[in-house]
Protein: Spore gernimation protein GerC
Organism: Metabacillus litoralis
Amino acid sequence: MNIRHNLRFLLLWPTFSLLLLTGCWSNLEIEDLGIVSGLALDIATESPIEEELKKQGGGYSKKDLITSTYQIATPSSSEQDSKGGGSNQKPYKNISETGDSLIQSVREISLRRDAPPIGHHLKVIVINEELVRSYSLEQLLDFPLRDNDFRPSCLVLISKGQASKALESTDTTEIPAFRLIGIVDNEYRTSRILPPLSLAKLTSKMQSGSSFLLQNVISSRGEVKFAGAAIIEGKTKMLLGFLNEEELDGLTWLTGKGKGGLVKTFNVETKQPILYEVESMNSKITPHVKGSNISFDVNIESEGRISENWVTSESTPMKTFIKTAEKSTEEEVNRLVNLVIKKMQEDYQVDVAGFGNQIRIKHPKLWEDIKKDWDKTFSEVQINFTVNITITDFGTSEISR
């Protein structure tokens, strides 16, 4: 009886298996979707196409506040390249829509294209600096944060100048949004790239009420460059100002979060450049509380190598030269750190280096009392720091001490 039952089950099992392989009844083919890889937000400026469509009656009641530009991948051109012969068609298309609501802008594009934009593969959001001076990040990113169509892991950048320009390229083989993501991956080669801040991480930053940084990007003629960082004020969530490249370099040393980088100094005697390459970087911030007085000690340490040396003098012993190079590197790092401390405490009066977080960890009760006005308090605290540089090798040669 059991054998007959088992045999019947084996014969019916293929039929049941077919019922489980019916697929998704509501699926959409990828060719029928507008895969958005990048989004740029700018002060409202209608494109020539929008102006022409409006003249022909293609308008609706709105306040022109924001121009959103969607970078949509075009798989057809990529397929042509893979088949050989190449193609002059770019693998993306940028479509702009001007209005007062991001979600309505998305829906308006559905009136212009057969493939509606979808943000499941969104890589980057670039926001124009003037827009963040006029509206808070909470307002500008409310729709992307609420809508499940937007990918929470996408990178958020600020742009000096028109944000949509960062989503343009003269290279017909690349998608600009992917290029921006690729630049972030170079943080192991330079100390002027911030740790990436995704849409999801940005939420917690805004909820904390503390000031923070977003990477700044500039663009020209289809080329882009990460150049410094934008300071977002904690209370307003609006743009306060910028750190230039040297100041961001100093901040990286102050926090010890760098994965690589260079420090250029000059030999006192020959005036020739010496390049110190970072192999490791560490910083320890120690808070001190005495009554109402708060101060910090920062210990910065780094090991690295001399990667390029233009000093041609052979009369100086190697050990003497290394000690001189270490000292001059320490002096340059001191200069960079002093630059950013002055910028934070005097120019903007904000803490974007995480000093307040150390108070929160070591003195939680005190932090509850001062966190609301921490930026103002921070501008008056004493910060002492030391820098210790150790050169471990000279190119392919190790140094014996």
In short: The radius of gyration is 27 Å. The longest helix spans residues 318-348. The first strand starts at residue 34 and ends at 43.
